[in-house]
Amino acid sequence: MASAPLLALKEPAQLNRAYIFPGQGAQAVGMGKDLYDQFAVARELYDRADEILGFRLSRIIFEGPESELQQTRNAQPAIAVTSIALLRTAAEVTPELLARPAYVAGHSLGEYSALVAAGSLPFDEAVRLLRVRGELMQDSGDRNPGTMAAILGLDISDCEEVCREAGAEICNVNAPGQVVIGGRREAVVRALDYAKARGAAKVIPLSVSGAFHSSLMRPAADGMVQPVATAAIADPIVPVVANCTAMPVTEEVAIRHELVDQVCRPVQWSRTVDFLSAEGVDTFIEFGPGRVLTAIIKRMLRKSTCINVNDAASTQVGL
Question: In this predicted structure, what is the pLDDT of residue 5?
Fold first, then answer.
């Protein structure tokens, strides 16, 4: 499993289809337990992750406590393992999924799941890297305390101006009118006041352990340089739309740069969806707990087909 691609994706490609993978916040105690109980291929992945990490991540995923699963160092590999187990199981149940999608993409840590799906990153490497990434980001949050908040109903230029005035930063551009900002707590609080004054429909402080995808994560990004440089990364067999640029990456060197940069740069999810739509993608399949990404896409692209594969029952994908 460490060297062979997780999926033997086949031609012809499905040029209207993209596989997408969620990021942190999608986790829930008990996710994937039905997969583990019903499918040997999923059980193998959870057991392998436990072996790689040297502790029972699967116990935390299936049993909690929630406070332990929510820790960034646990949540990141937990979501990826569950997402990949859902993809691998669905491909076994629905062989049509082995036809190559036009693109894959993931939100933040979901980019690692996308790289596994694209044959660029071995499953073992993804689990190891995400544990390191989670630890580094958790440590950066402790050393450089910060927070995040969502601003709804303002366009990106207004949010950028609010951040400039308040000393905060744009962290995720999820959809038109849905932007997440971050920074020092006082800067974020100030930015939310400014956003409300500019007419924001709603502002929502987020319960997070740090200002992810902001400059406060620079120590974590620096810490990822060596692990990413020595990881077994190959050219993907399916283009991966990068978080930082919302453009496809097809070479391993570019992927190594992306995996470092995306720790402290904004996730350009709205632009990613726009790019995929412009490329003719109209069917999005989200593999992972929850349904956050497809909910965003459905609001942006009302005529798109959005499919969630988030439990054992839904692995029998209707295409």
Answer: 64
* Class of residue 197 by CB neighbours under 10 A (exposed 0-12, middle 13-18, buried 19+): exposed
In the residue annotation, 213 being an active-site residue is answered as yes
Active-site residue flag, 257: no
CB 37 within 8 A of CB 302: no
Among 58, 120, 213, 304, the one annotated catalytic = 213
The CATH homologous superfamily to which domain 13-143+214-315 belongs is: Malonyl-Coenzyme A Acyl Carrier Protein, domain 2 (3.40.366.10)
C-beta of residue 282 within 8 angstroms of C-beta of residue 134: no
Residue 186: phi and psi, rounded to 5, are -65, -35
pLDDT at 295: 96
Encoded tokens for 107: 């939100």
Q: Whole-prediction pTM value?
A: 0.96
The pLDDT tens digits for 204-254 are 999 888 999 999 999 999 999 999 999 999 999 999 999 999 999 999 999
* Architecture per CATH, 147-206: 2-Layer Sandwich (3.30)
Whether 1 shows a pLDDT value over 70: the answer reads no
Catalytic residue chosen out of the listed positions 108, 209, 214, 270: 108
With 50 as the cut, is the pLDDT of residue 2 above it? no
